[in-house]
Amino acid sequence: MELVSVSAHEWWSDAPDCTHPLLAHLPRRANDATSDLNRAALGSYVQTLVRASTNGPRAYARIAAA
Predict the structure, then answer these.
(1) CA distances from 64 to 8, 26, 41, 61 (A)
(2) Which position among 1, 15, 32, 46 has the lowest Cβ density within 10 Å, counted as fewest Cβ atoms?
(3) 21-65 pLDDT, tens per residue?
(4) Residue of 7 and 60 predicted with greater confidence
(5) How many CB atoms are located within 10 Å of the residue 61 CB?
(6) 32, 1 contact by CB (below 8 A)
(7) DSSP sequence for 34-65
(8) If you ran DSSP here, which 8-state letter would residue 10 be given?
């Protein structure tokens, strides 16, 4: 998520504004659970997460259901 924040031109953070908080939780968990060898593969999701924000009132329910 730090790479996402930098890619979005935000302050260095593991909770960038450009990504919905519930969606940001998933890559943080994946990062913590994977090996150093496999961690680089998470980089393929950076550009998607840069654009993964919403203010919709139903967003939490939709994300949780998915």
Answers:
(1) 24, 11, 24, 5
(2) 32
(3) 988 998 999 999 999 989 999 999 999 999 988 878 788 888 888
(4) 7
(5) 11
(6) no
(7) S-HHHHGGGGGGHHHHHT-----TTHHHHHHH
(8) -
What average pLDDT score do residues 5-28 get? 93
Structure pTM? Answer: 0.81
The range of the structural domain enclosing residue 44 comes to 2-65
Q: Token match 């009132």: residue?
A: 57
Number of domains in the chain: 1
Structure tokens given for 7: 């890619």
Residues 6+ apart with CB under 8 A from 49: 1, 4, 18, 19, 23, 24, 27
> What are the two backbone dihedrals, phi and then psi, of residue 43, each rounded to the nearest 5 degrees?
-60, -20
